[in-house]
Amino acid sequence: MFLVDNILLSPVRGIVWVSREIANAAQQELVDQAESITTELSELYMMLETGRITEAEFDAQEGELLDRLDEVQGDGTVAANEEKDGDNGRWHIYNSEHDRAGLLAETVSASPPVRG
């Protein structure tokens, strides 16, 4: 019976594996983009400090880079924040660490008190 189950479920497992790999690759691409933008910001600060660009040029370029960074970080937060609840086996997806902390606080406060 287990052999038949494995044979029947193997296409589904393959699709799930491929989906996870695609999600991981997309997440890694977002991380790489964020690191690239952060490096560009560091270089921009160095150019301002050394006097190679003016304050106005710095402000314009910094605004563009920060907007791009916000877009990249805003797109990657949902896919990266999922966690399996060990007690009941359910999956939770968090939109941010703030949501995760709030949900955990609600879970802890909603737990019945331990009686000794």
Which characteristics define this entry?
116 residues; two-stranded antiparallel sheet; disordered C terminus; 77% helix; 2 domains; single chain; mainly alpha
What's the SSE blueprint?
Blueprint: H1 2-50, H2 55-80, E1 82-84, E2 91-93, H3 97-110
Antiparallel strand pairs: 1-2
Radius of gyration: 23 Å
Overall geometry? rod-shaped
Mean model confidence by pLDDT: 74
End-to-end Cα distance:
46 Å
Order of helices and strands: HHEEH
Describe the structure in your own words.
The protein is rod-shaped, with a radius of gyration of 23 Å. Helix content is about 75%, strand content about 5%. β1 and β2 form a beta hairpin. The chain has a two-stranded antiparallel ribbon with strand order 1-2. It has 2 domains: about 80 residues, no CATH class; about 35 residues. It has about 120 residues and is mainly alpha-helical. The C terminus is likely disordered. The chain is built from 3 helices and 2 strands; from the N terminus they run ααββα.
Brief rundown of the structure:
The chain is mostly helical and 116 residues long. The protein is built from three helices and two strands, in the order ααββα. Strands 1-2 form a two-stranded antiparallel ribbon.
